[in-house]
Design brief:
six-stranded parallel beta sheet; alpha/beta; globular; seven-stranded mixed beta sheet; 2 domains; 10 helices; single chain; binds NADP nicotinamide-adenine-dinucleotide phosphate; Rossmann fold
Length: about 325
């Protein structure tokens, strides 16, 4: 049996309920994992409110770290006692123990603590695929990255710096500006009180940037297009402020722009690619080029409060649930 956060209907944080669920033994190709830390990600909110589809009732969460307790038939690359993390697979990470498909599990290196791992599996692999696969960054480029002090954001600041890229980051408060600066973001714009399009033009001497990573969506998307150089790329990688609707004809008027809306699963699978991405991330962490730890902790039973904090924009960096 396991305590787990589940939802029976979509809606506000109040739909999240703590329930007791059966876990059982792992079947063929499966592994039972006892979680030590659970990561909270904005995508969990999309499922909770129904922006992303989920069969109901359901568990929630897709990103956690823990220890393998039992291994099902046919699983040769994991054993009881292995430390693992994941960010793909069925919903249900908000739980003490669960059965998972072995193929989505990533073994954690000894030098990376559970605390750190809980902040980098989904968030760091997102930075990996955005910066190294979707639009591969080159040293010397200047880029615009929205919500630079968020969970993905603080890792992105450090990864951009490690690549020799100058990041212009937007943030919603002075405290967040300080956090982004400490993480290596070169230019910081508080987009609650400054016009970020004008500031990007100033910083780039009117040239604009070759790429914008926009996870904010509704509130920023049009401005993001105006920050791009001709034939520049908008990576629309989230909708924290609300969904976006785009008339593609605008892309011609604004300089033959490219837009992509990438999903992790298409870049992380097949498994060998996910493991290659994780190796690159873990190397940067082990070299000290990316330093990451949870900034907000909530008990599993208080997952609704974690959602409230994330939606209210009061969090900085990563938020986790503890057990
Ligand atoms: N496509 C993918 O594969 C993928 C994978 C992982 C994450 N993502 C996306 O990346 C983004 C970051 O994820 P995260 O988990 O690290 O979250 P997060 O960045 O820690 O939190 C979201 C941040 O967005 C900003 N924001 C702006 N307007 C907002 C609004 N109206 N409501 C709430 N937040 C608003 C806030 O920062 P400020 O106060 O500084 O504005 C807030 O802290 C999310 O949009 C997520 O969906 C996409």
């Amino acid at each position: 049996m396991s305590q787990a956060i589940r939802f029976h209907e979509t809606g506000g944080p109040e739909v999240l309920r703590l329930e007791t669920v059966d876990v059982g033994a792992p079947g063929r190709g499966q592994v039972r994992v006892r979680h030590t830390r659970i990561a909270v990600n904005f995508i969990d909110i999309y499922y909770r409110i129904g922006r992303y589809p989920a069969a109901l009732p359901n568990g929630l969460g897709s990103d956690a770290v823990g220890v393998v307790e039992a291994v099902g038939e046919g699983v040769t690359f994991l054993a009881a006692g292995d430390r693992v993390g994941y960010m793909l697979g069925p919903l249900g990470a908000y739980s003490e123990v669960r059965v998972m498909p072995a193929e989505v599990l990533i073994k954690l290196p000894d030098g990376i603590s559970d605390d750190t791992a809980s902040t980098i599996i989904m968030k760091g692999l997102t930075a990996q695929y955005l910066f190294r696969q979707v639009y591969p960054l080159k040293a010397g480029e200047t880029i615009l990255y929205h919500a630079a002090a968020g969970g993905v954001g603080l890792i992105a600041c450090q990864w951009a710096k490690a690549l020799g890229v100058t990041m212009i980051g937007t943030v919603g408060s002075d405290e967040k500006a300080e956090a982004a600066k400490l993480a290596g973001c070169a230019h910081i714009i508080n987009y609650k009180r400054e016009n970020f399009v004008e500031r990007v033009k100033e910083i780039t001497d009117g040239k604009g940037v070759p790429v914008v990573y926009d996870s904010v969506g509704k509130d920023t998307l049009m401005g993001s297009l105006d920050c791009l150089q001709k034939k520049g790329t908008l990576v629309s990688n989230g909708t924290s402020s609300g969904p976006v609707v785009l008339d593609v004809t605008l892309l011609a008027f604004k300089g033959s722009l490219w837009v992509t809306r990438p999903a992790m699963v298409d870049y992380a699978l097949p498994r060998f690619n996910m493991l290659k991405m994780a190796d690159e991330l873990f190397d940067l962490v082990l070299q000290g080029k990316i330093v990451s730890a949870p900034r907000q902790r909530f008990a599993l039973a208080d997952a609704a409060d974690a959602h409230r904090a994330l939606e209210a924009r009061t969090t900085i960096g990563a938020t986790i649930l503890t057990l």
